[in-house]
Amino acid sequence: xxxxxxxxxxxxxxxxxxxxxxxxxxxxxxxxxxxxxxxxxxxxxxxxxxxxxxxxxxxxxxxxxxxxxxxxxxxxxxxxxxxxxxxxxxxxxxxxxxxxxxxxxxxxxxxxxxxxxxxx
Length: 120
What we know:
By secondary structure, the chain is mainly beta. The chain has strands at residues 3-7, 10-13, 18-25, 34-39, 46-51, 59-60, 68-73, 78-83, 92-99, 107-110, 114-119. The strands form 2 sheets. Strands 2, 4, 5, 6, 9, 10 and 11 form a 7-stranded mixed sheet that branches. A 4-stranded antiparallel sheet has the order 1-3-8-7, with no helix packed on it.
């Protein structure tokens, strides 16, 4: 069992930046991989980024490549999603989950989500 808590969402203007955090508990953090997904109203949950527990390079969805960066601090049991050059289409609830890859079926133990709203 893993518990995940996201934070850092908010309202930002287009072109701005936000950093989301996901704190994990309940399992040895150093050996779990985590991903970020987002869901806009009326749309399916979409893969954003994933970071592996090993030295494998992070994965990014096509719509965020070059703008978003995921990283982790094992000492703080925390994964981050740095979001730059935000666009109105980035508006969504952002979730972190335990797993690896781009397929939502490969993930379990979801957080409650944090709202990101980008105004034009």
